[in-house]
Specification:
Elements (H helix, E strand, L loop, with lengths): L1 H25 L46 H17 L6 H11 L4 H13 L3 H14 L4 H13 L3 H14 L4 H13 L3 H9 L7 H12 L3 H15 L2 H17 L1
Helix pairs in contact: 1-2, 2-3, 3-4, 4-5, 4-6, 5-6, 6-7, 6-8, 7-8, 8-9, 8-10, 9-10, 10-11, 11-12
Length: about 260
Amino acid sequence: MKRTRWIAAAVVAVVAALGASVAVERGDDVNAGSPAQPSVNPSEPATRPRTDLGATPDEPAAAVSAAPIAKDPSKLKQRLEANRLEFEARSDVARRGELLRSAAKLDPTNETVLEKLTAYELDSENYSAARATAKRCLAARASNTNCAKYQRWAHMRDGKFTEGLKLADRCLQTQPGDTQCTLAKVQALTALRRLDEAEQALRSIPDAGVWGPMARAGIARMRGDIPGAIRLYEKTCTDVGNEAACTSAEKLRKQQKGQR
C-alpha cells in the first residue's frame, strides 16, 4: 500500500512537471500566482559524504533525480522505478548495492542513483567501480560536487595520486580556494613526495579544521620526522577525539618501538 501511494505521488509530480514544460513551450507564464522559488547554487561546498545511506526522514520526493525527465512514457516508467529502488535502498542495508545497481542499469542517467551508488562503492572499497560510476554521474550533471569529490577519493584511495592531483587542480579551477579541493591537492602532493608544494598549498587554507594538523602530520611522516608526526596525531586525537588521528598515532608508536 505504501509503495502504491509513493508511486502515485511520484506520477502526479512528474505529470505536473511535464505540464509545466508544455506550458513553457506555448509561452505561458508558469510562475503566475506561484511564490518565488529559492535559487540553488551548484557550486556550494558539498557536505560530508554519507556512505551509510541509511533510512532518513526525507520525503520520497527527495529521491527524484535532478536529471531531466524524459517525455517518452517508457523512459518515464523507468525513471519512476529507478527512484523507487533508490528509496528502498536507503533502508535495506543487506540489498543496498544490488538495488542501486539495478536502478542505475534501469535508468543510466539518473544522477541521484549514480551519486548514491558511487558512495556505496567507495564504502565497499570497490574503487575502480566507484571511479566509473562517478564519471557517469558527472556526465549526467558536471556540477555535482559530491560525485566530483567521490571521484577524487576513489583515485586517491586506489593509489592513483597523479590522476587525483589532476582532479584536485580541476576542482580548484572551478572553485578557487575551496578547502576540500585544496586538501585533496595537499594529500596528492604528499603521496607523490612533493612535500614543499604540499606545505605551500596547506598554508593557503585559512582554516582547515581538524584536517590541517592531520595533513601536517602526513607531511612530517613522509619527511621521516616520526616523533613530530606522532605529536601532531596525538594532539588531534586528544583535542577533538579524531579516531583516524588516534589510530595513526598508535601505529607510528608501534612502528617506532619495532625499530629500536
